[in-house]
Amino acid sequence: MPIETRPLTPHIGAVMTGVDARRPQTPAEVAAVEAGMDRHAVLVLPGQDLTDEQQLDFSRNFGPLEEGANSTVRANELRLAPTFADVSNLDKSGAKLARDNERRMAALGNRLWHSDASFRAVPARYSILSGRIVTTDSGNTEFADMRAAYDALDDATKAEVEDLVCEHSLIYSRQQLGFTEFLPDERVSMKPVLQRLVRTHPVTGRKSLYLSAHIGAIVGWPRPEAMAFARDLMEHATRPEFVYVHRWTRHDLVIWDNRTTMHRVRRFDDLNIVRDMRRTTTRSDGPTVAQQAA
Ligand code: OGA
Ligand code: MN
């Protein structure tokens, strides 16, 4: 079957057909997916009824897998292999997470605009999210095109952001959700990392804004000024013209490039409705800045 892409918006997102993610991919197929990603930043592959093993095999075509996305969950309570980010609202026994469940509360961070693993020194390249059981009217996933957002900045702002470096940490995003207490070992494991605010895509050469809910400071700036500026940029970057809203169909496989996009999930009735989403994530080439003690 020929591989075809159909753009979903003027800037971001396309449906890709003709790829069967259940089978081993040829180098040409991998190259076609990567070319589609470079162009559209988000690809929707419908009808991919995958096993976990098939999802892992498909994902490995796009770089080394990131592990430990659910590292705050005790190993014996994991529902999925540690190579998965379990984005469902289910516990190991298949029961829905209670309202005050730790994992549920931390996962509410996915409702804030973010880029996956921007709090890691080597952040994520692709996220690959498989909709095993989906919600239809709610629980949409929204994606913002950070290339288009960069392009639309005025020249003065482009010059101002060009060399800025931000601190990213899970502590900062959790603070936005009202978490105030962090254990000493959490402060170590969630120690801020530095990331450039402007990234250049290694293949296309396009610049993009690297924003995320995990940002809590800009190097050399007073913190309140940094927070206010990051908020302004967020607001700019998530204007509807830069956003693709994905409404899920069962067995959609959605791939996004964390280097050039942000995303968030919208609210749904997670105490009563099952949503089983499983994410694999590949690592990018290296730190966005030479890492130093933040
Ligand atoms: C993710 C995420 C969005 C969703 O998997 O990284 O933010 O729709 N999830 O569940
Ligand atoms: Mn995410």
Give a quick summary of the entry.
23% of the residues lie in helices and 23% in strands.
Explain this structure to me?
This protein is an alpha+beta fold and 294 residues long. The protein has one domain: Clavaminate synthase-like (Double-stranded beta-helix), CATH 3.60.130. The chain is 23% helix and 23% strand. The protein has 8 helices and 15 strands. The chain has a 7-stranded mixed beta sheet, with helices on one face. It has a 3-stranded antiparallel beta sheet with strand order 12-6-14. The protein is globular. The chain binds N-oxalylglycine and manganese (II) ion (MN).
Note the total helix count.
8
Alpha-beta content class = alpha+beta
Instruction: State the major sheet.
Output: 7 strands, mixed
Task: Give the percentage of residues in beta strands.
Answer: 15-25%
Helical proportion? 10-25%
The number of E-state strands comes to: 15
Gap from first CA to last CA: 49 Å
Calculate Rg over CA atoms.
Answer: 18 Å
CATH architecture, by name, is 4-Layer Sandwich
Bound ligands = N-oxalylglycine, manganese (II) ion
Whole-number total of structural domains: 1
Output the CATH homologous superfamily: Clavaminate synthase-like
Strand order of the largest sheet: 1-2-3-13-5-15-4
Low-confidence segments:
none
Question: For the record, what CATH class applies?
Answer: Alpha Beta
Report the average pLDDT across residues.
96
Defining key terms:
single chain, 294 residues, alpha+beta, Double-stranded beta-helix, seven-stranded mixed sheet, binds N-oxalylglycine, binds manganese (II) ion
